[in-house]
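re: that chain from earlier
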Amino acid sequence: MADKKNILVFPAGTEIAFEIHQALRYSKFVRLFGATSVPCHAEFVFARCFEGLPFVNEPGLIEALNRIIDENAIDYVYPAHDSALLRLTQEQEKLHAKVVTSELQTVEICRDKNKTYAFLAGADYLPRSWHTVEEVPAYPVFIKPAVGQGAQGARRIDSRNALEEALADGVDYAICEYLPGEEFTVDCFTDRHGALHLCSPRSRDRIRAGIAVRSRPFPADERIRAIAEDLNRRLAFNGAWFFQLKENAAGDYRLMEAAPRVAGTMGATRNLGYNLPLLTLYNHWGFDVELLGNGNAELLDRAFISRFATDIEYDTVYVDFDDTLIVDGKVNTELMGFLYQARNAGKEIVLLSRHSTELLPDLERYAISPALFSEIIRLDRADDKTRFIKPHSIFIDDSFAERRRVKEACHIPVFDLDMVESLLDWRM
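^ sequence. v structure.
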């Protein structure tokens, strides 16, 4: 496949979208675009990002997407939310690009938990469930919006009065037996011929906003494999999908939900060697795939990450060596990443240091190529760094005194090491 395919991720501000971005950003076959309804973190991730689209269930969405598709020669739209997946699958014929999705019936069944339980009726891995308050034989029970995602709106209910009160809010809930045991997500991949290639469970050790932010993959036992195979037989998945299990009081697995899409924490499985978002594209491109994993144990843990937009413009980066480029005898990898980013953008990089010995041997010792720098200036102790700095530059140095002198004399932005993160551009 010689040409890159243009892939539009929508909505681009979800954790699902960020996992798709992480999975596809280095692929030589893909050029990524993002589209969102509101300003969000997507603008710090997608180099080509469009904002202001109608929300998923609003009129005009398809027309707005088609304008982006036509103007940017988009080949595929990659849905990154359950509601977007359903809407775009239903509207596939109206879109000017193909949708990365499974069969419509599968998408519709999986979008509604009550539909899922009805479709799978008789399967021994389903939790006991009821439709009305009158049917519930005992408490506690567990309710979850029938149309929802993650753990949003899910809660334990301990009495009939509490259940009646909960159901009075007008939301359509799935009412299930309360499952007190461990909860797992199982990442799966089905090839374009319908064969299940991967069944990779992972724990949900810590949850934030319905998303597992601490997750540990582990080998699937025969029972998990049997559930995955049965779901794959009954539903028509195409590519990445997942399901969630929880243990009842006896330790038996019960199905919480299934979804025919990429999961927000699927990076845990990707870093075992299974890039499911990319393999899903291969399905849609008509390729037969082979999976290759490392079989290693790992732990994924994540927290909020800060990314920055700045109006600072510069042509040259002046950077110190001791305690700046080299910290505690080691290369400052974050700063080095920024310097290469600046070099890629055509900026000049000047090493400006009062290093006590010759710089070239020490650069070689730390495997830093002198070719990274447009100029290497080693100063005497009495030299003033401000004499060597040109306008339209930035200055990076661990010394407050040096930064103050440069700021006052040269009137350029100055950065300590903890500020370098604000200069990084994550967009691809």
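The chain has three domains: 5-100, 102-291, 316-423.
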